Amino acid sequence: MRRREFPILDNHFHLDPRGKRWKAVAEFERSGGTHIILVNKPYFSYPYKSIKSYELIYETTIKLAKEAMDKTNVKIFVVLGPHPADLTENVRRGIPLKTAEELMREAIDLASKYVERGLAIGIGEVGRPHYPVSRSLWNASNRIMRYAMERAKDLGCPVILHTETATPKVFKEIASIAERAGIKLHKVVKHFSPPAIYPEENYGITPSVISMDLALREAFSKLKSVSSGNGFMMETDYLDDPTRPGSVLGPRTVPRKTYSLYESGLIDEDLIYKVHKDVPEKVYDIELDV
After folding, report:
1. Beta partners for residue 9, in sequence order
2. Are 79 and 121 in contact (CB under 8 A)?
């Protein structure tokens, strides 16, 4: 079958100044990728003691995006925010919880300014730890997550969440927090999501499905059978970490798996456009053309 060109978006991708940088994006492009949602990550050593750390992180991410777009034809959209691990790591390294929580809020406010300036299209990845923490840290993380949702609601932009494994119970709890924050549920994106495609599984939150074979096959199979709901997006959570090459999934994964499913007849053009164009355009208020 002759390969044709579709919009192909990786919804959660990282670049690192110590990693492959634009060369990873070039690999994505050579495999058929066209668009990336680039999310900052904790680049530097903890503790982060001031908002200057986040300014440096955000500016680094924007520079990495610009470099990659200068070197390739991939369109990159940036999402900025304090990672949930920042709170626990800062507290572990001696910063009082109240001070660490306030810094996270300041980092969300700073990310909001980048959204207002058109330099970012969302806030994230924010949320709560995927590992056990004390009750006080858990409660603080939930307060920070709600604050990010409130700021995203004010801006009309999405919020991208990092949380524990997203069971229907977790989706329901997060949806309840989002409703109290006032944000539209489809603008809450669950990063590293399982194939929770049915509305009764995701409670209105948009899943960003980690692009492993079984998860994708289940996600697309469910998508074929539902007439309502948000659909889903695909991601690799590529880390660009020189100490962990290819983690979490490699930069070629999303385009390769999309075309493989298409060329094998398991999905059609309508499903590709739903996942790689319709859903992200609705969530992010962007246009994805090739």
Report:
1. 35
2. yes
Coil, helix or strand at residue 205: coil
pLDDT band at 230 (very low <50, low <70, confident <90, very high): confident
pLDDT at residue number 3: 59
Q: Which residues contact 207 (CB under 8 A, 6 or more apart)?
A: 166, 189, 190, 193, 194, 195, 196, 197, 219, 230, 232, 233
Q: Tell me if 2 is assigned to some domain.
A: no
**Residue 77 to residue 118: CA distance in whole angstroms:** 10
For residue range 101-127, list pLDDT tens digits in order: 999 999 999 999 999 999 999 999 999
Q: What is the CATH number of the domain that holds 213?
A: 3.20.20.140
Query: In this predicted structure, what is the pLDDT of residue 229?
Result: 79
Domain that holds residue 58: 9-284
Whether residue 190 contacts residue 207, with contact meaning beta carbons closer than 8 Å, is answered with yes
Over its C-alpha atoms, the chain yields an Rg (Å, rounded) of 18
Task: Give the C-alpha separation, 176 to 171, whole Å.
Answer: 9
